[in-house]
Amino acid sequence: MPLRALDLNESGGRKLTQVKLEGLSILGYARAKPAGKPTPALNPATGDKLEPGYFWSAREDVERAARLAEDAFVHYGRWPAKERAALLRRIAELFEASAPAIIERTQQETALAPARLNGEMGRTCMQLRLFASLIEEGWWLGARIDHGDAERKPAPKPDVRSMCVPLGPVAVFSSSNFPFAFSVAGGDTASALAAGCPVIVKPHQGHLGASEMAALVVLEAARECGAPEGVFSLLYGPGRDVGAALIQHPLVKAAGFTGSRSGGRALMNLAAARPEPIPVYAEMGSVNPVFFLPGALGRSAEALATGLHASVTLGVGQFCTNPGLVFVEGGGSAEKFLEKLTDLMRATPPNAMLSPRICAEYWAGVEKISRMTGVRRAAEGAPDSRQAVALARPVLFVTQADTFLANPMLAQEVFGPSTLVVECASRSQMLAVAQKLEGQLTATVHGSEDELVANAGLLAILQGKAGRLVCNGFPTGVEVCHAMIHGGPYPATADGRSTSVGTRAIDRFVRPMCYQNFPEAALPDELKTSNPLGLWRLVDGKFGQH
Length: 546
Description:
This protein is α/β, with parallel strands linked by helices. It is built from 14 helices and 25 strands. The strands form seven sheets. The protein has a seven-stranded mixed β-sheet, sandwiched between helices. Helix 5 (208-224) links the parallel strand 10 (199-202) and strand 11.
């Protein structure tokens, strides 16, 4: 059946108004056919079922979406940067126009506050526009030209030129905790579309209706901009079925994933086992260790406890940058810090998590740590009479460095509002616990300039462990900008050389392509000697706009 997404408003623009959600996957510009029993969306705060029910995609839907994406790539992969940028900007405009309706539905499905969702909507639209500006400027392509020299001895020098080109259809797996920024039109989709790659999204089951509304926005923008059918599709269903079929399809050339380590590993294994293996850029979580040096605690123990508490409990702890591990050197300042942190955690009321399943996994993780020898459950949030089905209280654990070093399980992520404070007996023990850490998205150090210089060994260890080092701050909150890195060594991500935030994210969905001895007329505009696009390029070893 044909699919029209949005209604005209009085000013001639388009926005979502009273859109009837249909609960069906989207294949190009058409809906999939219903099959099987529908699954309802769920309000995690009340347990209420939300209409409509959603039908999972069939194998033939995956096949259809992949074929459409491959056909679209033939044309969209050659679209000029200006046209791709216009598409990204139009998606952002339609999102902003439709924000009230989308946010209302998303709040029902996630229990996230309107203020949080408004902020995330703004970030998502800004991200789309950032990639639009990036591809118009063109420097990210890495265009290089080495002119030939027929007179060179003993052998002529060939004319060699290179740049980045898009990979092909990309599968995007939405996250649970960011229903906009890491979802249907989030960073993975934005960077893939910017690169010239069609996108097939498998939305998260925690925000089914919000994903359908976002998909309608993307499709309307694609239609308005004249994008070929198949530049975007949406496939509902569980990862073990639909996700597996998508990652194994031979026409899919890369994937972006945000979620658990088990989910990311499953996709990585499937992709590696293909006859033609493909990259899976999986962001799989992190405990984001925070190191408080003695001088920092001595100067402002209570203030640092207040800042840490705010970071741990932000968004009910449902951030991939949530600080789940804290390291201090024992002593009077550390005791003062712990006393304040304990009081703050005990006074914090519970809140609803994103889904009953996520909440159940949080409490299972809390109970697992509570049973470990040598770990003290020092504080738990205030009780609450509400009957929410996904209610979580913050929990504070305390242990000693010897216990931490002897039990690798203590370094694993518990997704939610808990943190573990590890008391170290000396600086050398702090170095030892740092050395034992797995790969992380972030690592944070609090200390004065002199302390940071004196602890260069700690910083060197953490540089090898994390993708982003934070000084005298807290890791929650990721600035979307050119320089940001939201990635890290395995298992934080599948490939520590990549990022899912910032403009470097586009590099995941392109590959370098070289042209040797091509005549000017047959070269891409980006590599022509005349430089008709005015790009900054490396020409004969010199970088410039020539």
